């Protein structure tokens, strides 16, 4: 086997004279001429991403053309999302070029014998290319989409339900809910377009070149950049990266509004195979993953229905992977190669049109999952095949009220988009991460099953949704997330495929109920005897753009049955991994993750002390130790009340910053705990939203203005903009017109003021500031002192850590002094400063004043210092001593504590 590198020029667009350079590698088998396979890559990858599969196909005897799509790897141009006018036209030019190669078998002039396969982005390219170019002889798209608009903005609600002929149809309703997490991952992957993976390819044989390209596409013997250079070949379009401006604008629209306008929908339509599936007549193998929250089984179902309607031969395979479960393994890749061999060369047996799916069974004693492949005669509902059998399962549950929190935060968890592939090999790991929040979810469930039900596809249920009278109803309608759990006898729940069905329902504000049929995500799950099916309707989901307006809805069952698809078949193979260590690792991971989720649930719902819900901060026996014997904080306890400005003092190494980091949930204590308004603080605790802080540095983006930084920070919290009080914060910052300048031009003092304003966004109940006056000049320090006092006087609480003792003395009402990790003093500033009760009096008769003070019971250490007389009052109120002096005829000009806070501090820490 050998390879050839080539750069092929294609038109930038249909009406442009400019060209885009497509970087390719041609893999040549031992014997040529041979049929060709065009191999596009997944989104964010390049030709290097598919090198291993290209080698496998070449070893099977195919000429393989792998290439980097425009905007990726070393290919130039900008990403248009597999647009018919761009990437699909590029692929047609690549077919022109293949037709000129002597190594490729042709069906006639300009018509290579060619199949197309690819995963995700590459799979959609295979479908769209087959729809517009009949020179394609067969396709095998993998884990890809049918309608990109429906994939990224799904709506699983319909008034009358969807046709149930096939196992996993999607509702594909309009006005969908934005799949924010996956779309963000997509956009990030396209910002640079560069693929830095090591190509790992064989070197081209010397003495050969590629100067015999077709007229429509020129070739060169060197790529646009040197081998190994990871930089993109084309220009980066500012904040849009390597996306076309219209694609970037479309993403910006849905990312900021959660809705897609007509222009955005048109862009997504042009990037969807659904625009041309009515023209696909080539034999098609559709491979889709059962663990895929990006492109679910409904996308493959739609492709199958639309292509089969043309009379084309269609075979469907569901496997136990996907974007959340891993790419096809060697056996399935071999099945794709067999499909190509039969339909391009007539080799081997006919793969037919049987429907295959994988069942992940219960765990064996070794801890490894059992997999069995089930084969049905055909995909139900296609080309006259019998429709899908459905089983009705009774559900029960009363009407329940669910609340959508302001900002849609905190949100329920159903999946970890982009991370699921890290759990490949054990689909049940991610499916047990689901977390529903109290008050946000309605629950309905079945009775325990009396026998196994093999759920195979998309279940449906009819719900009744109504607004709560007197509560606001968002104009865009109610956004809900419906999911179907498998709950075992002990109550442990598994969410098959980690997928949810987002729905958007228009509900009248007067409380009139609306019935809606929800099509749940397609899944394969053996629901064992004694297990229950549990239907959960939630108002939030972390992976989607949640409704931000607070609202409440009444949820009930409009029909008491859940319709579950069942596809009968025969077991083809059974695969039980025998690697004991791998099995043990899976079991341990499940135990750990399940324990963490259970602990997180308990923390959210149970770890609240009702007696402390009105107390801003309570620290009890707090200890933080590190390996090596270092204890930064030891047995620290104190309490902060409403209206206090508390100063946290201590020399370097006293443990102040460690204490603040534990308070902010940035690190965990070794012992003891912290409660804010009765809630125990831990990383990610919801109560942290009631704290405004400036502890670890501001992290401002230097290329944005001060005002833009504040708005961006608040947007990241997910709360409504009107709750930010940005104008008040900017007034506090006192930056004037400088708020509109880029932060990179700010001085240290200006950054400090902006950071404090950021901490005050939303006017939090507890404000925590670490060295807030660093970099401020005296007038600014004075202004900050007044701001903090007024902030606390409004009923809030301020905690300040500072080295400026004189400033703490003038600003704070209370103080806590730490030394070597321990509490050494706590109380009112005056009490700490006066210590043993030493006082000073400025008088007109110093000697007489000294005599009077010595005559008072308990007063000692009286001495004269010019016009001042100093004495230790030993607990006597200063007012009593003052009264005695006045009664003796001594005129007192000034009276006060002798010591300053600085003196007391130095004495407390032993310096």
TrEMBL record:
Domain of life: Bacteria
Alphabetized PROSITE patterns for the sequence: ABC_TRANSPORTER_1, ABC_TRANSPORTER_2
Region Disordered: start-end pairs: 193-238
InterPro entries named in the record: AAA+_ATPase, AB_hydrolase_fold, ABC_transporter-like_ATP-bd, ABC_transporter-like_CS, Galactose-bd-like_sf, P-loop_NTPase, Xaa-Pro-like_dom, Xaa-Pro_dipept_C
Membrane-spanning segments: 579-600
Molecular functions (GO terms): ATP binding; ATP hydrolysis activity; dipeptidyl-peptidase activity
RNA-binding in keyword set: no
Ranges for domain ABC transporter: 617-845
Sequence ranges of Low complexity compositional bias: 214-230
Pfam short name (any one): Peptidase_S15
Key words of the record: ATP-binding, Hydrolase, Membrane, Nucleotide-binding, Transmembrane, Transmembrane helix, Transport
Family, similarity comment: Belongs to the ABC transporter superfamily.
The name this protein goes by in its record: ABC-2 type transport system ATP-binding protein
């Amino acid at each position: 086997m050998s390879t050839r590198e080539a750069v092929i020029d294609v038109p930038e667009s249909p009406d442009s004279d400019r060209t885009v350079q497509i970087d390719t590698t041609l893999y040549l088998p031992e014997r040529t001429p041979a049929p060709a396979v065009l191999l596009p890559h997944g989104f964010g990858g390049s030709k290097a991403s598919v090198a291993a599969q290209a080698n496998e196909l070449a070893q099977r005897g195919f000429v393989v053309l792998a290439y980097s799509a425009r905007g990726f790897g070393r290919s130039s141009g900008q990403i248009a999302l597999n647009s018919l006018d761009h990437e699909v036209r590029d692929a047609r030019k690549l077919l022109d070029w293949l037709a000129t190669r002597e190594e490729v078998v042709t069906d006639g002039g300009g018509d290579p014998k060619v199949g197309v396969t690819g995963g995700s982005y590459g799979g959609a390219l295979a479908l769209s290319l087959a729809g517009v170019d009949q020179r394609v002889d067969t396709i095998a798209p993998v884990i890809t989409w049918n309608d990109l608009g429906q994939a990224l903005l799904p709506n699983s609600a319909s008034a009358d339900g969807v046709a149930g002929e096939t196992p996993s149809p999607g509702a594909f309703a309009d006005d969908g809910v934005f799949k924010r997490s996956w779309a963000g991952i997509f956009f990030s992957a396209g910002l640079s377009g560069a693929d830095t993976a090591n190509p790992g390819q064989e070197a081209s044989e010397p003495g050969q070149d590629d100067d015999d390209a077709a007229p429509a596409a020129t070739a060169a013997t060197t790529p646009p950049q040197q081998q190994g250079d990871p930089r993109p070949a084309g220009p980066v379009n500012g904040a849009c990266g390597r996306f076309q401006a219209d694609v970037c604008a479309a993403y910006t629209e849905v990312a900021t509004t959660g809705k897609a306008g007509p222009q955005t929908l048109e862009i997504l339509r042009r990037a969807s195979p659904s625009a041309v599936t009515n023209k696909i007549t080539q034999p098609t193998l559709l491979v889709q993953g059962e663990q895929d929250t990006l492109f679910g089984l409904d996308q493959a179902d739609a492709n199958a229905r639309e292509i089969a309607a043309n009379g084309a031969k269609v075979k469907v395979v569901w496997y136990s992977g996907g974007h959340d479960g891993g790419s096809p393994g060697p056996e399935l890749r071999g099945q794709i190669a067999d499909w190509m061999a039969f339909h391009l060369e007539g080799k081997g047996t006919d793969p037919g049109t049987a429907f295959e799916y994988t069942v992940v069974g219960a765990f064996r004693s070794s801890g490894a999952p059992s997999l069995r492949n089930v084969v049905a005669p055909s995909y139900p509902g296609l080309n006259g095949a019998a429709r899908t059998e459905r089983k009705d399962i009774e559900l029960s549950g009363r009407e329940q009220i669910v609340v959508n929190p302001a900002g849609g935060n905190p949100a329920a968890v159903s999946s970890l988009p982009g991370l699921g592939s890290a759990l490949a090999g054990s689909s049940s790991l991610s499916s047990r991460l689901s977390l529903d929040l109290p008050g946000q979810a309605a629950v309905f469930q079945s009775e325990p099953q009396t026998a196994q039900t093999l759920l195979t596809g998309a279940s449906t249920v009819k719900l009744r949704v109504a607004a709560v009278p007197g509560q606001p109803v968002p104009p865009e309608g109610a956004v809900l997330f419906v999911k179907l759990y498998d709950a075992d006898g002990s109550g442990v729940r598994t969410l098959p495929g980690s997928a949810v069905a987002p729905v958007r329902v228009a509900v009248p504000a007067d409380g009139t109920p609306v019935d809606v049929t929800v099509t749940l995500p397609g899944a394969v799950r053996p629901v064992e005897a004694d297990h229950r099916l549990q239907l959960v309707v939630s108002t939030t989901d972390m992976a989607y753009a949640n409704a931000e307006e607070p609202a409440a809805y009444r949820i009930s069952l409009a029909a008491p049955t859940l319709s579950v698809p069942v596809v009968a078949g025969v077991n083809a193979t059974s695969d039980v991994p025998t690697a004991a260590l791998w099995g043990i690792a899976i079991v341990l991971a499940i135990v750990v993750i399940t324990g963490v989720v259970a602990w997180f649930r308990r923390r959210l719902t149970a770890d609240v002390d009702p007696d402390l819900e009105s107390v801003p901060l309570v620290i009890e026996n707090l200890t933080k130790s590190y390996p090596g014997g270092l204890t930064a904080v030891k047995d620290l306890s104190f309490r902060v009340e409403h209206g206090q400005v508390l100063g946290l003092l201590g020399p370097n190494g006293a443990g102040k910053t460690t204490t603040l980091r534990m308070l902010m949930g940035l690190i965990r204590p070794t012992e003891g705990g912290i409660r804010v308004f009765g809630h125990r603080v831990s990383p990610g605790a919801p109560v942290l939203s009631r704290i405004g802080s400036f502890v670890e540095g501001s992290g401002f983006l230097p290329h944005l203005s001060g005002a833009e930084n504040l708005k961006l920070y608040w947007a990241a919290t997910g709360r409504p903009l009107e709750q930010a009080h940005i104008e008040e914060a900017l007034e506090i910052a006192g930056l004037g017109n400088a708020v509109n300048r880029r932060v990179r031009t700010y001085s240290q003092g200006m950054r400090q003021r902006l950071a404090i304003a950021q901490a005050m966004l939303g006017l939090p109940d507890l404000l925590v500031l670490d060295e807030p006056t660093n970099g401020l000049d005296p007038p600014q320090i004075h202004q900050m002192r007044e701001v903090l006092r007024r902030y606390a006087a409004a009923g809030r609480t301020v905690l300040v850590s500072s080295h400026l003792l004189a400033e703490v003395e003038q600003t704070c009402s209370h103080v806590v002094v730490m030394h070597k990790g321990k509490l050494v003093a706590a109380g009112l500033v005056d009490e700490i400063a006066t210590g043993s009760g030493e006082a000073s009096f400025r008088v007109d008769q110093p000697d007489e004043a000294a005599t009077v003070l010595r005559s008072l019971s308990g007063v000692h250490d009286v001495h004269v210092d010019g016009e001042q007389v100093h004495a230790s009052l030993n607990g006597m109120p200063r007012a009593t001593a003052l009264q005695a002096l006045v009664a003796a005829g001594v005129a007192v000009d000034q009276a006060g504590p002798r010591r300053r806070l600085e003196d007391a501090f130095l004495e407390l820490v032993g310096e």
